Amino acid sequence: QLQLVESGGGLVQAGGSLRLSCAASGFRVSAIGWFRQAPGQEREGISCITSSGSSTSYGDSVKGRFTISRDNAKNTVDLQMNSLRPEDTAVYYCAASAFGGCSGNVRLYNHWGQGTQVTVSS
Predict the structure, then answer these.
(1) Whole-number Å distance between alpha carbons of 101 and 15
(2) How far apart are the first and last CA of the chain?
(3) How far apart are CA 80 and CA 96, in angstroms?
(4) Average pLDDT, stretch 77-86?
(5) C-alpha atoms less than 13 angstroms from C-alpha of 12 in its C-beta half-sphere
(6) Taking residues 66-79, what's their average pLDDT?
(7) How far is CA 102 from its chain centroid?
(8) Bridge partners of 27?
(9) What's the pLDDT tens digit per position in 30-71?
């Protein structure tokens, strides 16, 4: 059974950096997406990486600040977050694509981690 576990969240000042990691077990090679959800808001897709790591995508709100990468030997997908802003505050989730490719549609992901909190203070 596929299981995803996020780590690396925490409290950081605006302008700072954090690196999130998503560790997969029972892993079936698939695209992995990072999403976030702030209180009272819908879950937002922010980045995705294909199974091979050859293609990545980013939402407009994080483009140029966040970088996604994966190490298939270690079954991990990382999200490097730089120049953090207070509006980046949210619970961050990684998820495995149900159809194998990348999408920003939460309905196309069928395995989710438990989430990790990121708080950016002003």
Answers:
(1) 32
(2) 40
(3) 18
(4) 98
(5) 22
(6) 95
(7) 12
(8) none
(9) 899 999 999 999 999 999 999 999 999 999 999 999 999 999
d(CA 7, CA 22): 7
Measured CA distances, 79 to 1, 14, 27, 40, 121 (Å): 23, 17, 18, 24, 19
- Which residues is 18 bridged to in the sheet? 81
The helix or strand, by DSSP H or E, that contains position 94, with its residue range, turns out to be strand 90-97
CA geometry: angle at 119 spanning 6 and 105, to 5°? 55
Cα separation of 68 and 19, whole Å?
Answer: 10
Structure token pair of residue 5: 């576990």
User: Which two three-digit tokens encode residue 23?
Assistant: 């560790």
Query: Maximum distance among all alpha carbons in the chain?
Result: 40
Q: Say which DSSP state 43 is in.
A: -
